[in-house]
Amino acid sequence: MKFMEKFELLRHMSLVSLIVLILCIITPPIFATRNCDFPAIFSFGASNVDTGGLAAAFQAPPSPYGETYFHRSTGRFSDGRIILDFIAQSFGLPYLSPYLNSLGSNFTHGANFATGGSTINIPNSIIPNGIFSPFSLQIQYIQFKDFISKTNLIRDQGGVFATLIPKEDYFSKALYTFDIGQNDLIGGYFGNKTIKQVNATVPDIVNNFIVNIKNIYNLGARSFWIHSTVPSGCTPTILANFPSAIKDSYGCAKQYNEVSQYFNLKLKKALAQLRVDLPLAAITYVDIYSPKYSLFQNPKKYGFELPHVACCGYGGKYNIRVGCGETININGTKIVAGSCKNPSTRIIWDGSHFTEAANKIVFDQISTGAFSDPPISLNRACTSFVVY
Ligand SMILES: *[C@@H]1O[C@H](CO)[C@@H](O)[C@H](O)[C@H]1NC(C)=O
Ligand SMILES: *[C@@H]1O[C@H](CO)[C@@H](O)[C@H](O)[C@H]1NC(C)=O
Ligand SMILES: *[C@@H]1O[C@H](CO)[C@@H](O)[C@H](O)[C@H]1NC(C)=O
Ligand SMILES: *[C@@H]1O[C@H](CO)[C@@H](O)[C@H](O)[C@H]1NC(C)=O
């Protein structure tokens, strides 16, 4: 309807019908989004969203991990806060306790099942002898299932432990976040698979991802916030270990990033289908690749320098010959691979993880919904969209 026609229409309307019309305009249609009051967050994933899970099971990464914000190593793989911390903070919720942490944990507002080194597929090489976390996504799902039944029991029993668990209705009202897949791909490269071979494993990895999301849905989860995978080809871990990789114009290993892009494409499509299969769920795909990649495209714009060089570490072109916090002996002198002077001017903290400064910028971008499918913001991620 053109404006003038609308105007004509209004002029001929009675007061009553005008009020009815106004009510229709201001009453949100079924599609409208609403602000979500998430009382809890349950997180599944790997090191990018680990708040101390792997540290609880094995040991915390050494100092200077955590130096910027927590001033101690909390088990996070960064100098400070990670994106999940900013998500929790944005809802006024406390930082998530790792499910695996038996001391001092408070699960009132959720739990974190993510651990560094976690994969979607079941790994064939696990810590401490191998390289991956034993807590792959399927195990995290089993732990979550166990968490629900134990909290039900504890709630019935009452007492002090009952004050440390979520309310019963929090499980359906909570936000469920996922950030996993990077290790499945990187594991392939380090397992001597060619880029093509790793690329060919993507559909199977994504299928397993979806199976686990469905399983978690079947336990009552409804609001899903699912991160895509990162541009691994921009990280020192890939750049230093695969030096002959073809680089794009921003110095990132092109084909490694293409595999990440293929993973993300498959994930986005699978989630679109899942939205149709599970109409009661609000499923948001979050492209975390693009805002992370843009940091490498235009580091100066964000106040960053040396985009591909780890802030914490020692030696080599990418500063990761010795891992962050590790000690080496150079000609009889002990040297700790420490932090750069100012982590806030760096994108990369260690070989593959981002600094708090980078995490904050990425959080600010993804929380608006600008990188989401459907394009809804974090605080509206409880709205289900089914596009027929
Ligand atoms: C657990 O966390 C909640 C919410 O932050 C808080 O109100 C409560 O006091 C905490 N419980 C303990 C024992 O610290
Ligand atoms: C990959 O190849 C290297 C060099 O040939 C070898 O040392 C390493 O054990 C291989 N790794 C795997 C997981 O097969
Ligand atoms: C990965 O596989 C897809 C589907 O076959 C293909 O379109 C894409 O070009 C492949 N990417 C790489 C880097 O091999
Ligand atoms: C260790 O000492 C040797 C012999 O003095 C010297 O050539 C080498 O550069 C030293 N290495 C480092 C890392 O300083």
From TrEMBL:
Keywords: Glycoprotein, Glycosidase, Hydrolase, Signal. It is an enzyme of class 3 (hydrolase). One of its GO terms (molecular function) is alpha-L-fucosidase activity. Pfam families: Lipase_GDSL. The keyword Signal applies. InterPro entries: GDSL, SGNH_hydro_sf, SGNH_plant_lipase-like. Its EC number is 3.2.1.51. CDD domains: SGNH_plant_lipase_like. Belongs to the 'GDSL' lipolytic enzyme family. This is GDSL-like lipase/acylhydrolase.
